Amino acid sequence: MSVFSGIGVVGAGGEGRAVAAYLASRDLPVHLHTRDPRAVAGIANRREIDAEGALNGRFPIRSVSDDPAELAGRAVILIATITTAYPEVAARIAPYLSPGQVVVLFSSKLCGSVEFAHALAVAGAPGVDVVETDALFAARPDGTGGVRVLGVKGWNLLSGSCPVAVTRHAGQLCEWFPMLEVAGNPVERGLHDFGAVAHVPIALANLGAIDRAEDLLFYLEGLSPRTVALLERTEAEFAAVAEAYGARLLPMTEVLDRYYGCTRTCLLDAIRTVEPYKAIAAPASLDHRFLTEDIRSTLVPLQALARCAGVATPMVDAAITIMSVLGGEDFRRTGRTLRRLDWDGLSHDRILRRLAAA
Questions:
Q1: How many C-beta atoms surround the C-beta of residue 132 within 10 A?
Q2: Which of 140, 150, 159, 324 is deepest in the core (most CB within 10 A)?
Q3: How far is the C-alpha of 141 from the C-alpha of 16, rounded, in Å?
């Protein structure tokens, strides 16, 4: 299936708009799909996205639609929705997929491609490749017609629901997104996610201020030399789980430097010198998806994988418990469980074999 049949971008938040604008800037045929066309009325009326910041200009969009049937002819379908919507999104698009298409997930969290591929199979979709990366843009919607791009990451990882899917599509995707590098497996890719390491510990260090909706610069003011220890302990647990599944994590100071450039003397200095992070405000509620998405889609599957491998994760366990109590929701049940990955009941060794399967 030729890329000239079009690229469908599903999701019109900051990341979806930034991805669409970026690909359109490379003269690729981009079609934007959203469940709420009113939110992108300006883009639909002008058939272009107005981008400002790290990506600047007006870029043509071939169409804007809320009809998933229009994805049927697209060679590449990029999913830029929140991860907690994956089961619903997979069910909506499954009837219109055909062999030869590829689904690319942005900001997929831990093993998102595995979850999405299983959800497609449950919905009766034919076998299509599913690959994943992280959010590549720090971006915010700008009205109904534009996007403000705070930064473009200089590095990230690419993985997929199975190695052969990555092999088939890495060349094309790395051509479009030169910052991408192929990961060993989706666990390695998913745990190289600074946001997943940082968001919940920083929120826990600032519970009162966030719950009272006080003005707070999340990264710049949300950490101190003492509270950064929460991130460092969480990072150590991420690294231990990654090692149990055949991966080695880069230090988060190096990850941030590869993302946007920063001072690497220590984690606190690194965070405070990342330019796009300096203006990011804290959520105005503990129920914000900025926090709950990382719990449901990274911390919950990480805890389950850790238990399978016999790895202790006291910081992650405590974070899930505290946020579940505060949110009135059992995230261990509502999050990305092993059942959603089709790994329920598998031993550590059998999960390793699944990760290596062609």
A1: 31
A2: 159
A3: 9
Contact 109, 200 (CB under 8 A): no
Q: Which residues contact 313 (CB under 8 A, 6 or more apart)?
A: 237, 240, 241, 302, 303, 306
180/276 Cα distance (integer angstroms): 19
Neighbouring residues of 328: CB distance < 8 A, sequence distance ≥ 6: none
The Cβ of residue 37 has, within 10 Å, a number of other Cβ atoms equal to: 17
Assign 1 a pLDDT band (cuts: 50, 70, 90).
Answer: very low
**Which range among 191-195, 267-271, 290-294, 298-302 shows the weakest confidence by mean pLDDT?**
290-294
Judge contact between 255 and 262, C-beta under 8 A: no
Whole-model pTM: value is 0.96
- The residue type of 190 is G
Q: Residue 78 and residue 312: Cα distance in Å, rounded?
A: 35
Q: How confident is the model at residue 4 (pLDDT cuts 50, 70, 90)?
A: low
Cα dihedral value 319, 323, 325, 326, nearest 10 = 140
Whether residue 331 has pLDDT greater than 80: yes
**162 Cβ neighbours under 8 A, 6+ residues apart:** 117, 357, 358
Helix (H) or strand (E) holding 64: strand 63-65
| DSSP bridge partners of 53 | 149
Q: How far apart (Å, rounded) are the C-alpha atoms in residues 305 and 169?
A: 27
286 contact partners, CB below 8 Å, separation of at least 6: 203, 207, 210, 211, 323, 326, 327
Helices (H), the chain: 14-25, 41-46, 86-93, 112-122, 163-176, 186-191, 194-205, 207-211, 218-221, 228-244, 252-259, 267-272, 289-294, 300-309, 314-327, 331-334, 348-356
CA distance 113 to 220: 32
Q: Residue 338: beta bridge partners?
A: none
Alpha helices in 31-101 (DSSP H): 41-46, 86-93
